[in-house]
């Protein structure tokens, strides 16, 4: 088990070093940091002093090593646009993104798992086939189209829910949340539903496939022969054996939602990390872009590693392999 853990952690470190190298090279290919940070009236001496302070006069290997050491300590420098510490900017936006992704994940599980069970036990019926067809539409529609349709229907036409912003928030130390206010809860509904639609279809189709396979197994046949009620057979016995792939998918998709929530955040003007990244791309704010890339990649790698370790703890065959 120790060798397995060492290998997984070593792989995670190598992946993060590769991501850090890509983030570091963005500084060299997307413009001169000195020219973007100083004003037009700056003298050559001021430019040289800033270049020396940023360490741009050193070799590329030394610059990369310094970048990795600072990034490991959470130091990504100053934002070229806001002239503020990058990690502070991301820390202010992370609660909004985490809150949105968490609500979207909960919605996808609460809706997707029952739909998967019902489409499996109702295989061949018109309503089950209709849900299957609807899941194809849910997978195919781009998230920005879904977001715009939700805003048009529930915000513009019906006026039930706000179509942009986060509403009122409450500060709990360094963390901010809108779930404790009425306007905050109302504001999170539409972007969370928009973000969760693709996840709902994935969970539903995965649960359906696993349920169909589980219902064919011998222990389900024996339970049915013993007279176990159908509801208990479906939800107590069969569903429990289908949840491991769902847990894996949810863990993997959680990082995916954080990474690709930027489209939803842009459509709904949600003040999260994705919105900050889009602003950084617009103004070529390389430190913010590099920090976003490293942080999101770290979340992916950490979740992958945790899932691998969980599998190894559950299945001894992976440890011996």
TrEMBL record:
Membrane topology term: Multi-pass membrane protein
Protein name, entry field: ABC transporter permease
Residues of the ABC transmembrane type-1 domain: 94-307
Family: Belongs to the binding-protein-dependent transport system permease family.
Species, as recorded: Paenirhodobacter populi
UniProt xrefs under InterPro entries: BPD_transp_1_N, MetI-like, MetI-like_sf
Compartments reported by the entry: Cell membrane
SUPFAM superfamilies registered for this protein in UniProt: MetI-like (SSF161098)
GO cellular component term, pick one: plasma membrane
Segments passing through the bilayer: 12-31, 100-121, 133-161, 186-207, 246-270, 290-314
GO biological process, one term: transmembrane transport
Keywords: Cell membrane, Membrane, Transmembrane, Transmembrane helix, Transport
Gene3D superfamilies the record matches: MetI-like
Domain of life: Bacteria
